[in-house]
Amino acid sequence: MKNLLTYYISTFRNWFTGIPAIQRFRMQHPKLSGFVGGRFDTKHFVGLPLTLLLLVVAVNIMLLSELTESVVDAEWIVVADQKFTDLLYSMRAEWLSVVMFGLTQLGEQIAVFAIGGIATLIFLFRKRYWALVAFWLAMGGVGLSVRFAKTFISRARPSDVAYYEVEHYSFPSGHATTVMALFGLLAYFIYRHNSNKPFRKSIFWLAAVFIMLVGFSRIYLGVHFLSDVLAGFILGFVWMLVGISVEEVMMYRKKKRQV
């Protein structure tokens, strides 16, 4: 699949650069055309992979902007939020609430620092210094952006349905943002640096399951609306991509210096 995609991209690039007008532009602006052409190079991460990744980041930021605007303007999403919250509250069972309460602790600060601490020791032991920098840069970005967004939007949490008392504002969900970036990045680092395919696949699906369960637990326990969690997932995904980009770019530059 990867080779097929590369083939089509290379074919399109060869056709596009063969257009007379494009050839004249390349001759008149060699530096600019070289830079633009480098953004579509399929051989290096800083080429097409980074271009596509930045495009995905931009799309997610636009989605987050649209979702935020819908919440602020009290559009249809607010009605859907309340209906979904009421539905889950009417179906709430004590035993499941206890399970969800346990799962939601994975997004608490103490769990994040514990998991992050273990990851830090592993990064240091394996000399993955740029992975360490990328990881904490992303997690720091998560904390700052969630705090800013909560203060700026100032959305109240669901009323009279919370399983336990929670302070601060509701939008976006800090737990959803955190677990998306935390487990997403760790799964990526394992996938990137481990050659055991079954293990990599298991880690990927395990991370996805934990992310979804923690997000659902926030709604089930009545401490967040659905849109809070969706916004958290999007924001966390953006920071996960930032972390991936930092490590991959630094690794590319390191290899380039060694050549």
Automatic annotation (TrEMBL):
Keyword Transmembrane helix among UniProt keywords: yes
Pfam families, per database record: PAP2
Residue ranges crossing the lipid bilayer per the database entry: 45-64, 95-122, 129-149, 169-191, 203-223, 229-250
Annotated source species: Pontibacter fetidus
Entry superkingdom: Bacteria
UniProt entry tagged with the keyword Ubl conjugation: no
Name under which the protein is recorded: Phosphatase PAP2 family protein
Domain Phosphatidic acid phosphatase type 2/haloperoxidase stretches: 130-244
Coiled-coil stretches noted in the UniProt entry, renumbered to this chain: none
Keywords of this entry: Membrane, Transmembrane, Transmembrane helix
